[in-house]
Design a protein that fits this description.
Wheat Germ Agglutinin (Isolectin 2), domain 1; alpha+beta; two-stranded antiparallel sheet; 8 strands
């Protein structure tokens, strides 16, 4: 293949990674036409990697832009409303009353408290740390299950079992 834009025997060379791949590994321009000259010059994997790099760069340049968008899109609230809730909660989780400590490994920063909401009504309940939010998610916001877990922690069924069954050497 002398011309890396050409398609030969259903294969094409990616202009980014230089690998020769099946044309099925490339996206298409102009819809789903089957003409060879409509195959993109870069494979889907290189397109995906480039897209992630652009998104990361954009987030690093203006980290609040994505946050503003996500809060509005997901919860219908502004960043200012989030900041008011955070201030009203003294900057800590509504359950454990601790600040967030979960680090976003992609950016090396501590994540902001998450917006907790009822998945049935979408009503916002408060701001939670990652641990408390995941904990509620694991019990699917089931109050009865949470009460059973509390009872279990207070009175474990095998509290002294291990001590009573240790075999002496």
């Amino acid at each position: 293949m002398s011309n890396n834009r050409s398609v030969k025997d259903g294969k094409k060379q990616c202009t980014s990674c230089k690998e020769i791949k099946s044309v099925d590994s490339f996206g298409r321009r102009g819809g789903q036409t089957k003409f060879a000259h409509h195959v993109k010059s870069r494979c889907r994997e290189c397109e995906r990697i480039d897209s992630l790099k652009r998104k990361r760069k954009k987030r690093l340049e203006d980290p609040l832009a994505h946050r503003r968008y996500w809060l509005k899109f997901k919860y219908g609230m502004t960043l200012e409303e989030y900041d008011t809730m955070l201030s009203d909660q003294n900057g800590v989780c509504a359950i454990c009353l601790e600040p967030e400590t979960y680090v976003d490994v992609r950016f090396g920063t501590i994540r902001p408290l998450v917006v907790d909401h009822c998945h049935k009504t979408n009503k916002i309940r408060g701001l939670l740390c990652n641990s408390c939010n995941v904990g509620l998610g694991q019990v699917q916001d089931n109050v009865e299950l949470i009460l059973k877990a509390i009872e279990y922690l207070k009175n474990p069924p095998f509290d002294n079992w291990y001590q009573n069954h240790i075999k002496e050497n």
